[in-house]
Amino acid sequence: MKKALIILAAGFGSRLTPLTLLTPKALLKIDKQERNFLDKMLEYIPDDDSIDIYIVTGYKKSLFTPIISKYNMTEILNSKYSQTNSIISVYEATKKIDLNKYDAFYIAPSDCYLNENVFNKNTNFSWVNTVDSYSPNKEWNIVKRKDNKTIKSFKIGKNNENYSEFITGISYFKTSDFIILSRTIKQMLVENYKKNSNLYWEDALSKTLNSINLRTYNLSGRLLEIDTIDELIEFNPEVKSIKDNPHFNLIKKVFGINLTKIKNMKPVKAGMTNDSFTFEINDKVYIYRIPGLGSDKLINRENEFNTYKTTANLPNREILIHYEQNKDNGLETYGAKIALFHDNHRTVNPKNWSEVTKALQAIKIFHENKYNASYEFDVIERMTYYKSLILNKSVLTKTIELEHKLIKIYDKIKDRDKYLIHVDFICDNVLIDNDNDIRIIDWEYSGTGDKYFDLSAWCLYSYYSRKQCDKLLKIYLNGKIKKEDRRVFYSYIAIQGYLWYLWSIFKEEQNLFFSDYKETMLGYGKEYTEILENEFD
């Protein structure tokens, strides 16, 4: 009986941040024998060539090369891993594998720790691994049919729902059932790729339950899926990947504690420049900002630190606990930042004009302080620099004429007064709570510049229409708008749109994808250049 094992290892494993910044989740050494997830799972694979192993990679794919060679695996690339979910990994596998070559298929996540051999079971039915459920959870909880054997349905659980089992671990399919699954996936992607490509492959499986008889293979006590840092520490308090991690070591040093005092580590949605996670110490929540891939080329961390010193008494700034400025502690932590996490706050909604007004009042207080700094955010210099970072210079040829126009536009406004500005003043960097307390965070791009640069940044990131841009300017200036104010404001929308277009080309070359953002920014550059030419020249 010939079988195929498909291992899904393309994803980032964000819930194990910061460990996965250096190592894909599947390759983390987690047990006392210093075995990783894959080694532990694949020790059960028989030596008789009865199972062909396929592994779908994406994030840090080059690090899988040794283990692929060790187990004679066939690699399948999911190049869209950062934009999609596991349904695409399974889809890529079904495209590359001759389905009729095999009698059965396994689908395995790369993060389950097996203590039982599931690969030596020859059954005439398809099954999924489950474990017993003892409390409400947000896993794939199942409902069985009246025969108490086959699965009728499954769904992500809610806090007030109780189920007896939930799906985790490895799944096994007869070829006929796997073909039904593969066709269902293809149909879902044809119907609505943008929406359905962000689903889990189990979402497709749930749609096949009227066509296949799917049973459970319960592995309670013999299967462990480790999703979080807390779960990993509980499993193995001496895990080397945590003890040697520079970010955890910095936290221990700053707070003078041992690892067991750090609780409830959770990833924060990755930003465009950095990654972050929250953690608790003595019931206080903090946020740890990790400089992202390529940020060393974009950010001057010394300037950022100086901004935090300069604005120390600004009432609406985040509360900084520590800024790591010592390169001797390792480049991994240089520029790392620990701040109090404002857990009762949320990001400002750019469509809620009451919240926007509060944000504008806060940034206006900052502008009116007229802080001086020795470092300038020179937008033309940044354009030139971002262009130098772009490897594929041919992409720049289509915007040469636009760039020449923007330089002329800037020449008309470059001699205005400049003071310290935020530069990245966007809704994601302004927090508000129910009492309208405002906190402006993440000052890494800051430097001297024109206050209208901050206002244009808000408009661009919020994808505002011209009417909305005008409304924002009117609020900031208390309704007293001169033509010159509007001209300078529009100029920075045009210039900054093109600047972030160049920035996002560089980030794409780092395999960080912002395609919609990139084209939208270029659109602003073109639109407001045309407005300035037609209405202000």
TrEMBL record:
InterPro entries: Aminoglycoside_PTrfase, GlmU-like, Kinase-like_dom_sf, NTP_transferase_dom, Nucleotide-diphossugar_trans. Residues 267-481 form the Aminoglycoside phosphotransferase domain. It comes from the Bacteria. The keyword Calcium does not apply. Keywords: Nucleotidyltransferase, Transferase. GO terms for molecular function: nucleotidyltransferase activity. This is Phosphotransferase. It comes from Mycoplasma miroungigenitalium.
